[in-house]
Amino acid sequence: MSEKRPVVRVRNLRFRYPDGVEALGGVDFDLAAGETVALLGANGSGKTTFLLHLVGLLRGEGEIEICGRGLASDTLGYVREKIGVLFQDSDDQLFMPTVAEDVAFGPRNAQMPAEEVERRVANGLAEVSVADLRDRAPHHLSAGQKRRVALAGLLALEPEILLLDEPATFLDPPSRQELVDVLRSLSHAQILVTHDMELARALADRAVFFERGKVAAEGSVDELAERFRWR
Fold it and tell me: Are 58 and 15 in contact, with CB atoms under 8 Å apart?
């Protein structure tokens, strides 16, 4: 475990859906600043339910701290400023007429001054190497370009933590490698949910294996892939 300060701290997180199914059965988890952790496990093992708790979309029992503050109704705005979520389908995040307007949407919605919005747009586009696309319509872009533009929109809000839900889905090999290169260049703490072991190996400092709503094991990606015969 890294000795850097935890930006995510979870203790004894429990959640049961209305139909009685226990989705989380006492999860403990830490994420250090600058660390990338892969969440592994079968569909239905609790990974997505866990992520939804980190941004307050689901509320169970237990303790969640984000960047030093406990998650509660009165800290939800603070928490959501600290976390950016990259969806599996970029079309769920891109809806403005141009790339620049998409990236500007978050800062404008936060009522930032125009010059600050432009600074953040320029920085976000540069960080993911798509500055040349700023005047393009998002729906004309390739899947890989869309994914990086969606990521630029998150970076424009300057979060400390990125939640990545199967980020390489729909990407061809060159686009996938471009995304890997971008994600590896970022200093943000990252939680990566994936079934793709090669992606996890390329990005993650360590891995956590979910099974039936609990953390069954932690270790390197290779250790857990071998232990659980996960490929």
Answer: yes
Provide the pLDDT for residue 1.
Answer: 41
Give the integer Cα–Cα distance in Å for 63 and 187: 26
Pairwise CA distance, residues 19 & 183, whole Å:
38
3-class secondary-structure state, position 11: strand
CA distance 228 to 217: 10
List the domain boundaries for the chain. 6-227
Sign of CA dihedral 28, 190, 88, 103: positive
pTM for the whole thing?
0.91
10 Å CB burial of residue 209 (0-12, 13-18, 19+) is buried
Q: How far is residue 31's CA from residue 87's CA, in Å, rounded to a whole number?
A: 20
Parallel, antiparallel, or unpaired: how do β-strands 206-211 and 214-219 relate? antiparallel
**In the predicted structure, residue 92 carries a pLDDT above the cut 90:** no
Which of 228, 208, 213 shows the shortest CA–CA distance to 16? 213
Find residue 162's DSSP bridge partners.
84, 190
Exposure letters 114-129 (e unless 16+ CB within 10 A, then b): eeebeebbbebbebbe
* Spatial separation of the C-alpha atoms in residues 162 and 105, rounded to whole Å: 18
Share of the chain above pLDDT 70, in %: 97
Element (H, E) at 198: helix 197-203
Beta pairing class for 6-16 and 22-32: antiparallel
CATH fold for domain 6-227: Rossmann fold (3.40.50)
